[in-house]
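Bit of a strange request maybe. I'm writing a small parser for structure token strings and I need a real example to test against, not something I typed by hand. Could someone generate the tokens for this chain?
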Amino acid sequence: MTRRLAIAALLSATLAAAPALATPFGGDDGSANVPSDPGALKYEGKVGNLLAKFQKCVLKCHVNRAALKYPDDAGGMGETLEDGCENVCAQKYDAKATALGTAPDGASCVNTQSIRLLWVATLDAQSNQIFCDGTTPVVTGDDTTKIPSSPTILTCEKKLASIVANLLKCQAKCHLSRAKGKIADDTGEDTNCETSICVTAKYSPKTAALVGCPGCLNFATLASNSLANGDNNAGLVYCAP
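Reply from user aminoacidic:
Good idea to test on real output. This should exercise your parser:
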């Protein structure tokens, strides 16, 4: 009896010390996991919310560049001012991320600065999918934004940038619902949330209502690429096991 109790106690201690097993989001969501620790879930959800605000801020910087609120000159002032705008977005994001406090042990894998750097590079690289019409700036820098050829086209693309920001915010909510277990699997997240809600119910009606848009815009491809970027990088936010 004593030996059995000792073995049982040893097994119990071993199980208690075993690390939590990760439950992957599955499908196209990179290495994202459904966190087992409530503290990690709360922290990661807040980081996801901050990221959506950062994405919106960066897209506004692109709007300013396209609208020539920054000069398009050979000296590169437009690029410098746009980068400065993005740096302000970064400072706001970093300050709010710091205010979250130290990440719980389970979410220590979350690197808020790495997430920010990846996303500003991603948004810069695909900015010509929103601002596709017109001339390339004299100094292009690290993004692909073009200067629209007319005020009408600028208005369309400006509204589209806001629509894309809302699409990414909607996707972030889908990821949070998956992390909370409100969505059972990747199919439910992709089909019932990202596609049905974010794209079909929200994004598509708003893009369909746009007028004066250039022929180079492809709303479906833009949505698909934006969501793919969000899915591929979801594991940077939801990395806790």
